[in-house]
Specification:
The chain is mainly alpha-helical.
Length: about 150
């Protein structure tokens, strides 16, 4: 679709009037273009600031824990590594303790032997002896694999 272009008039005053109106329209369009460019630059700047703020908030809420909340100067911690050791317990014996050597850890089930200082007592059990093995008893009941 093409625009219908009016023919150029033959008389000079009409032609000049049309030329002036077209020149005004041209200046108006140039002014609108400059406003549009200025608005675009302002919006791009605003977008960059909002994007930076969004990324900072996203890092604050969803980032690694060390980046979420920056520590305030003078912040105290519940478990300080540099904290002084607690005062010694005075209710303990004042005699020097024997030097205790660290035990070697044994591999195994983790059970400990019964200490020698505990009293021991033998308790007889009246349990009848079973005939055969557990698998033979299971076969008799019919629960073994076939």
């Amino acid at each position: 679709m093409t625009e219908h272009i009016d023919p150029i008039p033959d008389d000079l005053p009409t032609c000049q009037q049309r030329l002036r109106s077209l020149l005004e329209r041209f200046h108006d369009l140039e002014r609108q273009l400059e406003e549009f460019v200025a608005t675009t630059v302002e919006l791009e700047r605003s977008y960059a600031c909002l994007k930076e703020e969004y990324l900072a908030l996203k890092r604050l809420f969803f980032g690694p824990r060390r980046e979420r909340l920056p520590e305030a100067p003078g912040q105290q911690h519940l478990f300080d590594n540099d904290a002084p050791p607690p005062p010694p317990d005075e209710s303990a014996d004042s005699a020097p303790a024997e030097e205790v050597l660290p035990r070697k850890r044994r591999k195994g089930h983790g059970r400990r032997d019964i200490p020698d200082h505990l009293p021991r007592k033998d308790v007889p059990h009246d349990v009848p002896q079973k005939r055969g093995s557990a698998t033979a008893a299971a076969r008799r009941c019919g629960s073994a694999r076939k």
